[in-house]
Model the fold of this input.
Amino acid sequence: MGAHPLRRFFLIAGEPSGDALGAALMAGMKQLDPDAVFTGVGGPLMQVEGLDSLFPMDELSVMGLAEVLPKYRQLMRRITQCTEAVVKMAPDALITIDSPDFCLRVAKRVKAVSDIRTVHYVAPTVWAWRPGRAAKMAQMIDHVLALFPFEPPYMEAVGIRCDFVGHPVVSSPKADDADAAAFRAAHGIAADAPLILVLPGSRLGEVGRLAPIFGQALAPVLARHPEARVVLPAAAPVARQVQSLVKSWPTAPIILDPRARSKEDALAEKRAAFRAADVALAASGTVSLELAAAQTPMVIAYDMNWFSRKMIARMLRIDTVTLVNIVTDTRAVPEFLGDDCVPGPIGAAVLDLLDDQGARAAQITAAAETMRLLGQGGEAPGLRAARAVLNGLDKRQS
Done:
């Protein structure tokens, strides 16, 4: 067999999570094909792997209608710029990573004027809501890389090749028991004191809505366990608001403020807190997978404004939104959503988890199964993703 021709890839990531996925994919690609060439749009992690970004990725990291509107014309210019750059380069594949509002517009335009192979990393959550997105995606995407093992059939049903490549949580750093003990010692938390981790979200709106509810939910827990300590890892964008909101709580939580530390130190402390905690009360989201990776039993609660709550309730196709429950097809994690997101039942669930060793053990078992199903113990997700991309190219050329 002769050497394969130089392979070139155009990648687009629009936010930090996509930058991390893209960097891991690039590292995997270089392992399988050291001569691969990359260009496109990415953040600092992708740039470390060798991407020369056309423009700062931060320009694409906008969320919500109010934030997008003032930048609409600039975003449309960037879509045109990316499309023209892809068509001019004629890469072996255009790989778009999450950020569907931007990425799929570029892919659609590229497909309109070329037969360049298009790969999208992160399947849309069509299993949860708006299933029609899969068919729309089929108009501009040839191949999807999925984070969850149950996603490929949804994409394949509309004619898109889809490979499960594993979730990045399985290869992210983990704290151990020594880190957990050091965390307790550093914050003066006795080894036998119940440690409750509280995670009210990372956006201003959700923190403002959930922090008062979570504070009230803690009251009966602290009444029964007065020696318990509460730790709240704050996201940098909402750390100031968190400090104000917890003043009404029944106890002063230990707030982990990442603004005062290096990113690496802040993440290490957060991981140690996750490992040290006995139970967690958390907003819905990918944080449930981080807690599962740390084997921390959890209660999930979430609410949104009335209009969004009613709209999403009508569109949801599943009876649980907690990823541990979805991945394992169990309901091991109790959740309180929308109208059910009220302090009394949430507090009772946290108490049950603290006091019932059987419930805690069931969650830890579900957490371990979640990590196994998401690819723990196998090839790193970035390498699996790279292998899937190259396999797709080889099949196309054969």
